[in-house]
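Hey, can you fold this one?
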Amino acid sequence: MIDKQQLCDKIIELYPDIGACGIDVDVTYDENKKSWVVDLKKDQFELKTYLEDGDADKCMLGQQCVSLGIEVAQLRANIERLKEDTKARL
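Sure. Predicted structure:
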């Protein structure tokens, strides 16, 4: 099984601008869904996504990180869009 800190470190390695593990990025394992929950926070915004076991394993082994990269990039884009929508409403 993947270690939480290792997965956080891999995400931060891929996207060093998103923050530190446990602060802006956090991961927890959801036993019911058998997947990792990637929680991305910036300012007052928070978004979560799920990373399946197999995808997380491949990424940690250096075989494939495409799905993780796409998910994290999407989370970042969503946060930026939410920030812009909030500014537009003010």
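The chain has three helices and three strands. Let me know if you want another pass with a different chain boundary.
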